[in-house]
Task: inverse folding
């Protein structure tokens, strides 16, 4: 007898309709099929209607409003989360796993990998190995990991950029807001000034070997460096 239900239900969350359509097609063609019971571009669909009862939540934390905090909330509420993302900056995958995700896959992974991760999550058993855990010592250099993800080098979290107090304040406020315009209003700055401070922070992170080209990856950096706590989001 199979150790998972014949039909597994899933809610798919991604800002790109093509990704939602593709994942839905993969799930429908699986044997046995995986039922997509809800889908959308915001994590709210996982908390309401049919999405609230789905066995597994498939999401990309690199949404218009970064969803890292929702990964933790979903996991803490007993939901099984599969992160399916293009955010492969060092540390992002490990952060998602630490927040409670059952699995983390690069979007370069094919249908078999994703459907397999969904089924494994529904069985409450993450697929292994997805992202290798760091060794105690010595720390190895960054290497490719399963499904196209990269793991962080052991010294990454110690290479903190020297952000000015203003750069830190603006970065944190923006990460807590929906937009640069909202952050600018709270800080009594112009949106252009907010963009300038954020760009400076990005440059400084890149200079220490920790690039952060998206809002989600900057949020990971801020969490790693203690500039931001998930409770602040």
Result:
């Amino acid at each position: 007898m199979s150790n998972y239900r014949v039909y597994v239900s899933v809610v798919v969350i991604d800002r790109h309709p093509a990704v939602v359509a593709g994942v839905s097609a993969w799930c429908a063609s699986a044997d046995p099929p995986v039922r997509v019971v809800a889908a959308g571009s915001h994590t709210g669909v996982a908390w309401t209607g049919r999405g609230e009862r789905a066995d597994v939540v498939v999401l990309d934390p690199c949404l218009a409003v970064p969803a890292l905090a929702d990964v933790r909330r979903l996991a803490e509420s007993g939901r099984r989360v599969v992160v399916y993302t293009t955010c492969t900056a060092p540390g992002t995958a490990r952060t998602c796993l630490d927040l409670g995700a059952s699995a983390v896959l690069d979007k370069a992974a094919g249908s078999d990998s994703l459907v397999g991760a969904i089924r494994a999550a529904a069985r409450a058993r993450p697929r292994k190995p997805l992202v290798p855990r760091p060794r105690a010592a010595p720390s190895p250099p960054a290497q490719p990991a399963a499904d196209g993800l990269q793991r962080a080098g052991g010294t990454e979290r110690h290479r903190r950029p020297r952000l000015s107090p203003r750069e830190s304040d603006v970065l944190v406020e923006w990460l807590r807001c929906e937009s640069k315009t909202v952050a600018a209003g709270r800080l009594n700055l112009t949106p252009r000034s907010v963009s300038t401070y954020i760009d400076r922070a990005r440059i400084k992170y890149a200079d220490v070997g920790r690039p952060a080209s998206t809002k989600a990856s900057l949020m990971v950096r801020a969490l790693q460096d203690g500039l931001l706590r998930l409770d602040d989001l």
Q: What stands out?
A: Helices lie at 17-29, 68-76, 92-98, 111-122, 165-175, 180-187, 191-207, 215-224. The chain has eight helices and five strands. Confidence is low (pLDDT under 50) at residues 1-5, 125-157. The chain has two domains: 8-122, 157-232.
